Amino acid sequence: MPQQITFVADEDLKNEAMKKAKSKGITLKAVLVLSLQAFVDGKIDLGISATKEPAVEEMHFDSSSIAEKSDKLAKLLK
Q1: pTM for this one?
Q2: Band of the pLDDT at 57, cuts 50, 70, 90?
Q3: Strand ranges, E, within the chain
């Protein structure tokens, strides 16, 4: 069953990727889905080293129990 994936990317990066995909005659969605499949199939191997800590978005939980546990975990990780 298809699932939606949502993430945040730099606007300029997204626009350049969309432009390049269009020039190749495909959609950005197709690029991303094909990339995911290639990664799973072992056709793409990534070596990533972070030069700076990525920005983390704030998370909100509907369950107060989960929110409390999340807050405790965040404090332990600081």
Answers
A1: 0.57
A2: low
A3: none
